[in-house]
Specification:
Blueprint lengths: L12 H13 L2 H8 L3 H15 L4 E4 L2 E4 L1 H26 L6 E6 L1 H8 L3 H7 L4 E6 L13 E3 L16 E8 L2 H8 L7 E5 L5 H9 L8 E5 L3 H7 L8 E8 L1
Parallel strand pairs: 3-4, 3-5, 7-8
Antiparallel strand pairs: 1-2, 6-9
Protein name: LysR family transcriptional regulator
Keywords: DNA-binding, Transcription, Transcription regulation
Family: Belongs to the LysR transcriptional regulatory family.
Length: 251
């Protein structure tokens, strides 16, 4: 062993984990609940660290705890170290040759209607590779979210060091039943009740721009959390108002 090796005089990892939870919550009780320990166990862990380094990490007042300056410094370093350790362990687990994992983050709509139905065939072709599918949308940081691949729309910034592969093109257009069209619209979509999805809040505006009708306004509007809600109604309700559908054209 090298003479330059320095023995690390650190508190036990369990004590640091208890301190990090208590500092993050500013509460010994909530830390105990998170870690499934007793309040006394958290208190003893913190006291063990304070005794080791010789300074107070918390100020106790009125049954509450507040971080001291030293406590704030230790929280920052401990959180970063625990995050790095957790990430490394997760990467080793996911990429172990005996049981490799490919973690894929995918837009919920695309995951349910396109990706998931194809996972069975993928499993047959690559039986040695396990898939960890996470449904999410919007910008993503692959490193911080422990993902290998993300399937996203290209309507936000992408980091320069990411490799990008185009999967499909997107087509947007209004959809309604023939009964609703004949009864309410009569070739004028402004007479319709437009349905909006909060997952694509600018969809109608983008479509109007593409058609050169930016000033067009609907007679009435409704908003839904996700386009699946009006989609389910479309299959059962012949009087469904006008909804803007976004079709994916696979290339």
């Amino acid at each position: 062993m090298s003479n330059n090796h320095i023995k690390r005089r650190l508190p036990p990892l369990g004590a640091l984990t208890a301190f990090e939870a208590a500092a993050r919550h500013q509460s010994f009780s909530r830390a105990a609940q998170e870690l499934h320990l007793t309040h006394g166990a958290i208190s003893r862990a913190v006291a063990q660290i304070e005794e080791r380094i010789g300074v107070d990490l918390f100020v106790r007042r009125n049954r509450r705890v507040y971080l001291t300056t030293a406590g704030q410094r230790l929280l920052k370093t401990t959180s970063e170290a625990l995050d790095a350790l957790s990430l490394t362990v997760e990467e080793i687990h996911r990429h172990d040759s005996a049981s490799p994992f490919l973690t894929v983050s995918c837009e919920p709509s695309l995951a349910m209607r396109w990706l998931m139905p194809r996972l069975g065939e993928f499993r047959e072709r690559c039986p040695e590779l396990n898939i960890d599918l996470r449904m999410a949308g919007g910008p993503i940081d692959l490193l911080s979210e422990n993902c290998d691949i993300a399937i996203r729309r290209m309507d936000f910034g992408i980091k320069e060091n990411y490799q990008i592969t185009t999967l499909c093109s997107e087509w947007a257009g209004p959809v309604c039943t023939k009964v609703y069209w004949d009864k309410h619209i009569h070739q004028d979509v402004s007479e319709a009740n437009w349905l909006h999805s909060r997952t694509r809040p600018n969809a109608w505006d983008d479509w109007k721009v593409s058609q050169g009708i930016e000033k067009l306004t609907p007679k009435s509007e409704q908003h839904f959390d996700h386009f699946f809600t009006p989609y389910r109604q479309l299959k059962t309700n012949l009087a469904l108002p006008l909804v803007l559908f976004l079709w994916l054209l696979m290339t």
